[in-house]
Structure formats: structure tokens, C-alpha cells
Write a structure and sequence with these properties.
- With about 375 residues, the chain is of the alpha/beta class.
- It contains ten helices and eleven strands.
- It has helices at about 20-35, 50-60, 90-105, 135, 165, 170-185, 195-210, 240-245, 250-260, 270-290, and strands at about 15-20, 40-45, 65-70, 105-110, 120, 125-130, 190-195, 215-220, 300-305, 325-330, 355-360.
- The strands form three sheets. Strands 1-6-3-2-7-8 form a six-stranded parallel β-sheet, with helices on both faces.
- β7, α7 (about 195-210) and β8 (about 215-220) form a beta-alpha-beta unit.
- It is globular and about 60 Å long.
Length: about 375
């Protein structure tokens, strides 16, 4: 596994890699003076097809795309997986170079007028920002302690709900690093995936409350075409046995969606209840397996049916004028009795894997 601090050799000639703020800001000033627009895609690396979909959307809406690659320590709790989080710098750079080549060769029509044959290419990946932690936290070493010292952005009560209840420093870290990236790059637009729905709500609130002059664009969740599992950098930890059970997240969410969309149910009892019952059934089934090498245990953290803007839990029913967010979080437990030839995933199945997923229940007439 190559260190994030190594220097890549596979970037396209038009892509610059920045480690420090000052040269990036000079580059950004030149873009502004040239009338160009910047789309920012913040990542922690370990890029997958979900990240690439964000970059494609950014390239479609801007002349230039900047991808940040930085594993932000302040969004990991003191006992979370910061040290084992996948760092795949060389593979990330290769994926970005391949995507940039694709963008360079794919024209996109700019007119709905069939008599107008003008076309333009999408934007390009012209910058990668891969800072050190000293660059991102220049005065004090970053801390994951809830009451630790440092300069942080906190968005309450949004950051204390759902993921925030189990990971109390997570959204403080996310908000802080996003504010830093927005201040450093001043993009016109920043791109996030719907899979991390609470993150998008928190960042949008931060942008609004602090008058940050960029749009927050949310791109639909990318899923594995075979089993529907939402793409995530943490999926590499699962291995075959845990991945097979983890598909229950999307399966359960779609049952709740069917209650709302197909059967016209608005009651929490129907929508939330069917998701909880389906996941509980899978939990029970795994617990009944007596051979440790054949089971994959999971712990349900939450199922939420919430307002799409405030994330307040809906105690009664979904307001059809507003819709709702139906979300779930589970923790896949470490594998028991891994077998010699078994696909256990990165880490040999020893790492607990937290998985989240959601479905948007749209407003209805």
C-alpha cells in the first residue's frame, strides 16, 4: 500500500498536483481571471465508481475539476479505523488519469435545438489537492477527543443525530475539513454522494449559515449492479461472507420504499416498521447458525425515517408535500473462524465494518 505522501508519475499533463495552499490559490486566481469555473470533489482516496460519478458530474457542470485526496483524522473517533483506512494513492492517480482521458474524448451536446450541431467537451480534471495534515491543521495537531483543543466547525443539532449519535466527532471533523477546502479552493460547486445523506444535509446547512458562496450538489448513490450494495471505500473490508449478509441494507430499504411509493402508505409504522422487521429477521437468522465459520453477525445501529431538511424523526407519518429520508446503519461484526481459502476482505475479516445506506422518499402529489 503506497503512502499518500509519494509523488505520482501517471497523471495527465494537464493535471497539476498541489500539496500546499499558496500555489493552489495562485492557480485558482488564474482560473477566475480566465472566466473558468471550478467543481470540487472532496474525497479521502480509495476511489471507486461512486467517486468517479461525482467527478463526471462536476466535469459536466464546470470547466475545471479539482479532486482532493486527504484522509481527515478529525472525523475519526479515538477508537475508529483511521490507521486501517485504505490508502491507495497510485491506484487513485491511475483512475483519475483514465477518467480525465475519457472526459477529453467525450463530446457533450450543448443545445436542445436539433438544427444546432454545436458540441462542447466536458470539463477536465485539472487539479488534485493532496495536502499533508500540517497543511490542513497548521497550528495545533488535530485531535479526535470530543473536548480536545483546536479550531472546529460544529453544526448542531444536525451533527448529533443518526451517525452523530454513534460517532460524536464525525460531523465536526467533516464540517471543519469541508470549510477548509471551500476556503482554500473557493469552488463554484462542491459534489457529494447521496449515500452519505446526513453529510450532505450538514454541509448544506453549514454553507447556508456561514454564507459560503458555493453550491452543494448531491449525486445519486452508485450501487453494485449485482447485489445493490452501495459503493463505499469500506466495502473492501467485507469479504464474501459479510458482503452477502450486508446486502440486507438495500433490500430492507426498498421494502420501505415500496410501502410509500407503490402501496401509498405514509405511516411510520408501515414504512419504518417493515425495514426494522426485515433486518431483525436476518440478524436472527445469522444468530441461529451454530457453525461460526458459516455466519456473519451484524448489529443494527438505527433505522431512521426523517425530515429531508432537518433530519427530525417523523413520529407519525410522512408529509407528502416534503417527502422523507429513509436511512439505516449497521455494523458488520468481525468474522468468526475465517477459513484458510476464504475471501475475508482487507484486514482478514478482523475489522468491524460500519455500513450506511438510504433512500429518498420523494414528495407526492
Amino acid at each position: 500500500m503506497t503512502s499518500q505522501l509519494s509523488y505520482p508519475i501517471a497523471t495527465n499533463p494537464g493535471t497539476q498536483i498541489f500539496r500546499d495552499v499558496a500555489p493552489l490559490r495562485t492557480w485558482r486566481r488564474d482560473l477566475l481571471l480566465s472566466g473558468r469555473t471550478l467543481g470540487l470533489v472532496p474525497t479521502m482516496g480509495a476511489l471507486h465508481a461512486g467517486h468517479l460519478s461525482l467527478i463526471r458530474q462536476a466535469a459536466h457542470e464546470n470547466t475545471d475539476v479539482m479532486v482532493s485526496i486527504y484522509v481527515n483524522p478529525t472525523q475519526f473517533g479515538e477508537n475508529e479505523d483511521l490507521d486501517s483506512y485504505p490508502r491507495t494513492w497510485d491506484a487513485d492517480i491511475a483512475a483519475l488519469a483514465a477518467l480525465d482521458s475519457e472526459l477529453a474524448s467525450t463530446p457533450t451536446s450543448t443545445s436542445t435545438n436539433t438544427s444546432d450541431q454545436s458540441v462542447s467537451k466536458d470539463g477536465r480534471i485539472t487539479a488534485i489537492f493532496a495536502p499533508t495534515t500540517k497543511t490542513m491543521y497548521p497550528t495545533l495537531p488535530p485531535t479526535s477527543a470530543l473536548d480536545g483543543p483546536g479550531s472546529f466547525v460544529t453544526i448542531t443539532p444536525l451533527s448529533q443525530r443518526l451517525e452523530g449519535a454513534s460517532r460524536p466527532v464525525f460531523f465536526r471533523g467533516v464540517s471543519t475539513v469541508c470549510m477548509k477546502l471551500f476556503n482554500i479552493a473557493t469552488p463554484e460547486r462542491a459534489y457529494f454522494g447521496q449515500k452519505d445523506i446526513q453529510q450532505t444535509v450538514v454541509v448544506r446547512r453549514m454553507v447556508r449559515d456561514f454564507h459560503v458562496p458555493n453550491e452543494v450538489r448531491v449525486v445519486p448513490t452508485q450501487r453494485d449492479s449485482a447485489d445493490g450494495l452501495a459503493l463505499s471505500s469500506r466495502n473492501v473490508y467485507l469479504g464474501q461472507r459479510r458482503r452477502h449478509v450486508a446486502t440486507i441494507l438495500y433490500e430492507a430499504l426498498t421494502l420501505g420504499e415500496e410501502m410509500y411509493v407503490l402501496k401509498g402508505k405514509r405511516s411510520r409504522a408501515f414504512i419504518w416498521g417493515v425495514v426494522v422487521d426485515r433486518i431483525a429477521a436476518v440478524q436472527s437468522a445469522q444468530e441461529r447458525i451454530t457453525v461460526p465459520s458459516e455466519r456473519a453477525r451484524l448489529v443494527l445501529d438505527y433505522v431512521s425515517l426523517a425530515d429531508p431538511d432537518t433530519l427530525d424523526e417523523l413520529d407519525d407519518e410522512v408529509d407528502p408535500a416534503r417527502g422523507a429520508v429513509l436511512s439505516v446503519a449497521v455494523v458488520m461484526q468481525p468474522l468468526e473462524d475465517p477459513q484458510p481459502d476464504e475471501d475475508c476482505g482487507v484486514g482478514g475479516g478482523k475489522v468491524p465494518v460500519r455500513l450506511i445506506d438510504n433512500i429518498i422518499l420523494p414528495p407526492r402529489p
